[in-house]
Structures are given as C-alpha cells and as structure tokens.
Write a structure and sequence with these properties.
By secondary structure, the protein is mostly helical. It has one domain (about 1-115). It is built from four helices and no strands. It has helices at about 1-25, 40-60, 70-90, 95-115. Helix 1 (about 1-25) packs antiparallel against helix 2, helix 2 packs antiparallel against helix 3 and helix 3 packs antiparallel against helix 4.
Length: about 120
C-alpha cells in the first residue's frame, strides 16, 4: 500500500509541475498577446484532482482520519483553479492576470499541503 501511495504522491507532484511550469512558460508570451492555456496546464490540473482524491481515499481505506478541513480548502482552491483553466481554455489568448492566478492557486495548494498540520 505504501508503494501505491508513493506513486500517487509522485504523480501529484508531476501534476503540480505541469500546471506551474506550463503556466510560467506562457508568461513570456503575454507581451506578444499569444499566451494561452496549454494542454499541460489542463491535464496537470486534472491529474492533481484525480491523484488528490485517490490519496484521500487511501487514507480512509486504511482506517486513517485525514484533516477534512484542510482537504476541503485544498479542494476548493483546486476547483477554482480548474474553473480558471477551463474558462481560459476557450479563449484564443489569455491575460497575464489569468496565468498569474492559476500559478498562484497552484502554489497556494502546495503551501496548504506543506504548512497546514
């Protein structure tokens, strides 16, 4: 079970890297008005959601008790992030503010994961 949990944590980190890295890569295109939501951002966000839910499910399945407040706040932050990604995905070009919001929310989720005990 620890191996499965480890794999899910690695995939969760890959999802964060995809969202954050792809978002930062698009910031240079904002000046030229050609920044967009890339598939890496979209798929990374979905990977974060799927692996996060599976990790919480594993805690429940093994008889553990996760911090439901923390999980709830992280889920809300991730849902807002996904909504921003889906809204931006429909546009030909996105603003630096939208990209900054996506990057900021992904970092906020990491901060919550690491610092909230």
């Amino acid at each position: 079970m620890e191996t499965v949990k480890g794999i899910l944590v690695v995939l969760h980190l890959v999802g964060f890297g995809a969202v954050f890295g792809s978002t930062l890569a698009q910031l240079s295109a904002v000046k030229e008005a050609r920044a967009r939501i890339t598939p890496g951002i979209l798929h990374g966000a979905w990977l974060l959601l799927a692996t996060g839910l599976l990790l919480v499910g594993m805690v429940y399945a093994t008889g553990g008790q996760p911090n439901n407040a923390k999980i709830g706040v992280k889920l809300v932050v991730l849902i807002v992030l996904i909504v921003l990604v889906l809204i931006g995905r429909k546009k030909q070009q996105v603003t630096g503010g939208l990209l900054g919001g996506i990057a900021g929310l992904s970092v906020l989720n990491v901060i919550l994961a690491v610092l909230w005990h």
